[in-house]
Amino acid sequence: MTASELRSLIAAGLPCEHLEVDGDGRHWSAVIVSAEFEGKRAIQRHQRVYATLGARMHTDEVHALSMRTYTPAEWASTPHP
Q: Which InterPro entries does the entry link to (predicted)?
């Protein structure tokens, strides 16, 4: 799987205002900004992203995914490089 493919999978299942994906083919990191995260704790946000990936998380197609998840308001108030 490529970063572009993983980004497309997440974006297809979760409306994102901002989405960055980086990794080596098995180990990934993502920055995800979505209004769907409003009122959700970090674990609930991560579960929502995992749900978009479905079986890919269980078949080892995506071995590891480290996430930073933000609401649009949180993202707007976070400094970015």
A: BolA, BolA-like_sf, BolA/IbaG_stress_morph_reg
Check which CATH number belongs to the domain holding 52 and give it: 3.30.300.90
Answer whether residue 81 is part of any domain. Answer: no
- In a 13 Å sphere around the CA of 68, the CA atoms on its Cβ side amount to 12
Q: How confident is residue 80, by pLDDT bands cut at 50, 70 and 90?
A: confident
- Give the mean model confidence (pLDDT) for residues 41-64: 87
Whole-structure pTM value: 0.91
Query: Is 30 within a domain?
Result: yes
Domain-embedded: residue 36: yes
Write down the H helix ranges in 1-81.
3-13, 42-53, 55-58, 72-76
For the chain, what is the domain count? 1
Q: What is the mean pLDDT of residues 65-74?
A: 95
